[in-house]
Amino acid sequence: MDVRKTLERAGGATTTGEIEELFWNLTESLGGCAWTYADIGWLPYLTGCYEDAARSTVREDFQEAYLVHGCSLSDPCIPKAHDGPTPFFWSNLRDWQLGHASGRLPASSGAGVMRLAFDHGLPDGLVVPLRGRTPDNRPTHAALTLFLEHAETSETADPRVLSWLPVAAQAAHARMAEIEPERLTTDRPGGDLSPRERDILSHTAAGRTAADTSEILTISPRTVEKHLESAMRKLGATHKAHAVALALSRGLISL
Length: 255
Fold this sequence. Notes:
alpha+beta, Beta-Lactamase, 2 domains, five-stranded antiparallel β-sheet
């Protein structure tokens, strides 16, 4: 693929269809079989159709299973994509290794999500984290996933493709934010968590009880609980574990 022409196509696109065609071209350059372009700030809040937060050509039975099992709450690729701009293969994730080493797993776990993909004929994928801003200066967090028909690694993939593919994907993302800015924004529930609420959620994610956290932060257990309840309301969570999962998936806290 001609990199210069690809960048020109991305910058000159006037419709989402042109951007989607470019995503197909990027997928084919890596020998992939499908792609998903997702707003990773919105995925954890999916309650309707998969298309509410993502454009995708991946098989529909996988999309349905992903939604039905609430996989966006435990998908290990979402927090990983939030962490930084470096592309990564599923097969480089510990959850992928655990999922492939086991039989059927609950989809509520990271390894279970990876296993679910494998069971639907999707053994690996390349995730390209994407950052940008809409025309009215709102930040955007998205990810382009290229689904592969065989396990791949950064060592075995064509280094030339890995060097220019993220650049082309980022250019397409920037243009998409100009064409359809309303679909890409990180202005989602939970963005107004206080530093204390994030701190307490981090301790909760590490398995600490309210009593443990209160000793570390030198506050009362009841105060810890109040902060957790406030964080749950802001995140739209139904219980503490749900709040932790949402905060992790959105990159609001880290382990």
